[in-house]
Amino acid sequence: MQSAVILRVSPGPAHTDRTGHICQETVDKPTRRRRAYLKDLKSRLNYLLQNSNAPSDPASKQHNKKNNTPLSRPSPSEARSWSESFDALLTNKYARTAFRAFLKSEFCEENMDFWLACEDFKQTKSSSKMLSKAKKIYDEFVGPEALREINIDSNTREMITDSLQAPTPSCFDAAQKRVYGLMMNNTYPRFIQSEFYQNLCKTTEETQEDAQWNR
User: For residue 22, what is the enclosing H or E element?
Assistant: First the structure.
């Protein structure tokens, strides 16, 4: 008489939830990493939303030092106007601050910083200051050893390198236009669709309704 062989299939890895129940682990590592990334993104942007008087935009910092006036959270109607065009966003100090924080969460804030540096550079009148600023921008964003290198083609990079001997206000224009296009076509649409931006566009009543709905 042959004895029966019973095969027992052991369950996959399990974990205990907050209530102490055993739960089957079904979420793979890429999904967990993405969830962690989205949670961190939401935390970063919510921090900016709650601390609107601490701008990270270099231009805003300089403005506040001169005028000693903190940035105020925009009204919902003002925030909604940023979706009309990318230029509408760039001309608003709070919007630039919020957008830069979003860029930072996507690890590409150097694009905004380069664009702002170019705007400041074009306003420079002194030739000696222009030379020093051009070298600083090149070393930080353009050169082969740049730690915050922007995404531009080799021809544009060579043109900028050649112009460093006698820089003009337009020597970074091609690179700035390229970076502007990257932000407008890639990051700007994602920012407009982000939960952070959508919250800025809501009225107090809508925010309270959402809070009650999520209880």
Answer: strand 22-24
In the numeric block, which tokens belong to residue 175?
A: 């690179």
C-alpha span between 91 and 200 (Å, rounded): 17
Structure tokens at 157: 């990079």
Nearest to 98 by CA among 131, 141, 59, 52: 52
- What is 110-183's CATH number? 1.10.167.10
Domain edges within the chain: 110-183
Q: Which helix (H) or strand (E) holds 15?
A: strand 14-16
First to last CA, the chain: 64
Question: Contact, 25 vs 13, CB < 8 A?
Answer: yes
pLDDT at 159 over 70: yes
Structure token pair of residue 94: 């709070």
List C-alpha distances in Å: 133 to 58, 112, 127, 166. Answer: 15, 17, 10, 12
State if pTM tops 0.85.
no
